Amino acid sequence: MTNKGSNYMELSFSARSENEAFARVAVASFISHLDLTVEEMEEIKTVVSEAVTNAIIHGYEQDPEQMVYVSTRIEGEQIEIVVEDKGVGIENLDEARQPLFTTKPELERSGMGFTIMENFMDSVEVTTGTGQGTRIRMIKKVSPNKIYS
Amino acid sequence: MTNKGSNYMELSFSARSENEAFARVAVASFISHLDLTVEEMEEIKTVVSEAVTNAIIHGYEQDPEQMVYVSTRIEGEQIEIVVEDKGVGIENLDEARQPLFTTKPELERSGMGFTIMENFMDSVEVTTGTGQGTRIRMIKKVSPNKIYS
Amino acid sequence: MSLEIDLEQRDRILIVRLKGELDHHTSDELKKQLESAIEEADIQHIILSLKNLQFMDSSGIGVILGRYKKISQKQGEMVVCSINPTIKRLFELSGLFKILKLKESEEDALHMLGVA
Amino acid sequence: MSLEIDLEQRDRILIVRLKGELDHHTSDELKKQLESAIEEADIQHIILSLKNLQFMDSSGIGVILGRYKKISQKQGEMVVCSINPTIKRLFELSGLFKILKLKESEEDALHMLGVA
Ligand SMILES: Nc1ncnc2c1ncn2[C@@H]1O[C@H](COP(=O)(O)OP(=O)(O)O)[C@@H](O)[C@H]1O
Ligand SMILES: Nc1ncnc2c1ncn2[C@@H]1O[C@H](COP(=O)(O)OP(=O)(O)O)[C@@H](O)[C@H]1O
Fold it and tell me: What ipTM describes this predicted complex?
């Protein structure tokens, strides 16, 4: 967690659905001085929303006593966002990443969360396992004139 | 750090002045569903700004590798905000809390930070000591129709 | 910033105007309101008017798909209009344009459904 | 949301219009711009026009006091106008109204300083 030449924040909050908007606003505010385009900003808010919603609904099955963890690092030409829960984890990750695959159709989930993260970010790494929680690390490159210094 | 019937968030970030606005926005966004008056919201943003600025300027003397810690809990009829640094600490707290007292007149500090926190919040508790960092715990009561449930 | 839902009925068409942010938290209320309109007001077609929708994630896709299933059983159609670029990409990724039509404005959408 | 600074000179009066947020981060730039205006443009009086200032904390008080010291050496006055309730309370707590005048509008402030 060294901090040299970069700007870093981390944040944790109760697994309540009203905090989904809070997480998006916090990340957007943290990167606001980078002067991203409106679309880049929207894309980042969307992926934060997808990952945080998954942590709340799937990871913790909406138990409000659990905590969701989000961090953001601005370094060189990239923004790194990590969303983590210590919940149930994902048994079959390949299956989970398929478009339209969902284990909660009864909640009208669309199964598009991972697909959206992959399309809106430059890279998405998932570390998970049954009972081990889920950690999503996403990276987006920004144009050189927006480099943090 | 139990979470029963309350909504909680904590956040930490690099001690950089551009993060002062981020800290205000994050706290304001976290409590936004309470429907506070515009003035109550402004008061809370102001005290967060005062305490975070103090951590950055005084606690860490603007060393961007250090981290500032902010948490917010909404519980029953109150909002509790804690701002903490692991910096130099305050030697003489009674003196520091006096209106217009500042140890950094060369930076044009007004010495009004603590006075503003005390006036805008219902209670302000400070835990500090030379070399021990500083922890400010502030509470604001909100009207009963805004109770978190 | 939460979600404001404005519903207007014209014949058997329901115009759904959304303002604010549609995410998992706000999608429940939208689902509830649309369900009762579709059941009680005998709606056949839906127009989603998204000009003032500032944010939407995949929870929104879920609600839209769920309602589409209901009205397609009545041979109804769903039309979306005034959509911003990022939300349009969400629709594209999800293949939503295979089942619903995209129009520029509410007027165009109404016209398409045969209302002058 | 950062700070926009708009400076306009009328005779020896500097009108300072602030928009956005004045905190420790943005106060440095304001200080720099005011200092060079006071030195180079031979300013005697300052009008702070705060209609569009959405946020200010005690860092703003520091900058204002610092500039007040400069112009009071030239027998200048400082007038503030169009101030919101929370920022007004900051001024009151800090005793700023003992040294600077409060007016409703820029016009009132200019009038007070003898400009028609
Ligand atoms: N944080 C998580 N914890 C446990 N399971 C998860 C998590 N995130 C995703 N999953 C699993 O992966 C599946 C696909 O996720 P996603 O593509 O976001 O679609 P959706 O959330 O709509 O189901 C989910 O249905 C769930 O089974
Ligand atoms: N987090 C902190 N760490 C160390 N010293 C502090 C901290 N906060 C406040 N102080 C001390 O208390 C004094 C008064 O603080 P305050 O009333 O906020 O005024 P100002 O920040 O304008 O100096 C500061 O000048 C500083 O010496």
Answer: 0.92
